[in-house]
Amino acid sequence: MATQVYMSGISLVIQYFTNLGLLANGGTVTTYEGGTTTPVTTYSDSTGTAHNPNPMTLSSTGRPVVGQAPVAFWVPTGTLVRLVVADAQGNQLVYLDNVPAIGDPASTGSLQTELANPASGSGVDLVANAIKSYDTFADVRAANTPELAGGQTLTIDVQGALSVGDGLGGTFYWSAGSTAADNGKTVLNPNNNSGNGRYLRRYAPPLSTAQAIPSNSTTDLGTAASNVVSITGSVSINSFGSSASLANPIYLVTLAAAASLVINNSAALLCPSDSSINAGAGDFFIAQYLGSGNWVILAYYRQGQAVFGPVTQVVSTNTQSITSSTVLTNDNQLSAALSAGTYKVNIVLLLNSASGTTQGYKFACTFSGSNSNTAAAGGVLTGNSVTAAFITSINNGSAVVATGIVATPGEDTLAVEFPLTVTAPGTLNVQFAQNSSSTNAVNRLPGSTLLIIREA
Description:
Blueprint: E1 5-7, E2 28-33, E3 56-57, E4 65-66, E5 69-70, E6 74-76, E7 81-86, E8 92-99, H1 111-116, E9 127-136, H2 137-142, E10 153-160, E11 170-175, E12 187-188, E13 198-201, E14 211-214, E15 228-232, E16 250-255, E17 261-263, E18 269-270, E19 277-279, E20 284-291, E21 294-302, E22 305-307, E23 311-315, E24 320-322, E25 329-338, E26 341-353, E27 359-367, E28 370-371, E29 375-383, E30 386-395, E31 398-401, E32 405-407, E33 410-424, E34 426-434, E35 442-444, E36 449-454
Parallel strand pairs: 9-10, 14-15, 15-16, 18-21
Antiparallel strand pairs: 1-6, 2-3, 2-7, 4-5, 7-8, 10-11, 11-13, 12-13, 16-20, 17-19, 20-21, 21-22, 23-36, 24-35, 25-34, 26-33, 26-35, 26-36, 27-32, 27-34, 28-33, 29-30, 29-33, 30-31
């Protein structure tokens, strides 16, 4: 004969979420006799014949299931249940004790009684107003401070931070003892309340629409209404501020299309390779707030590639004509200031000699600082289907690079790549000149590049 059973109040929660607001896939539901650690038998339906597993694993949708079928929790008359729900890693999500069965005549209390008197002592934490909804953060701030009876709680659902549907709203709960400052993200203060009581965000703010803030010496990421930030302007940055929350410390930051600036490495702003970054438009990075105004850039990306130090790239924009001069001079469009460190230098010159008399050109690379190594590397010259190799080396404070290379009429390409360890800061310059006096010009074409990658 089947046991007479009644639906337990814990059946009213049919889906569970993690503390980050994700479906609690793989979590567990464990039931005990009220006020004890003794497992209690529950049944999957009103027949009282099929036992539920204990603990029960949550499905991919966060629901209690047996096999693939969602189930409820039915218990014999007079049974009070203690419910413990945990995520897949064992972190406790829900704890309810002494939950009575619905409509059970032998119960010491009913759900209706608990709703009417949440401070009755049964230990059930019930909602005072179900869920209250607001359109924006401004509407929450304009509302009256809630007044709750002892044991009552209040949850609000906000549809957006600045406008409905902007993706930055979320679920907040009333914390009667909180005095945290309203930061427009994780803490909201209704009616500019000067006493205790704040709405605190229940789940981490979503990564959503980027919020634009201007660059300044202190570019305070915590003032953005999102953990996705777009920095505008070109003022160099020395700090990311101190208003960010340690509860949600990770920021995805993009340099706006017109932004080009320097992010200065310091003890309070640790950059990859412990070096300042020459940031360019479209670059993005991941930063973590460590508290007390301290930050670390965990990863920096340029054009989709991870960078573990600053990259300097100078690309010529105009044709530079060299006529009869044979003096090697600095090419101002191909130069870079380098601090101490180890670099990989890549130089590509696109050259064009005028038609007529065969032209010659010579190439050099100088560094005004000091380096610990005499770097030697191969270079390749191609022109009119002819390839020639040469050796280049940079000595401390000066440079010696192959000269006297002959170019025939047409377009040639000269490519050089070598390591450089800088011990004293200086400027790296590319030099180019005609090899011999002639009225016919040899031009360096647009698209020639100097690419310097910091490796350590």
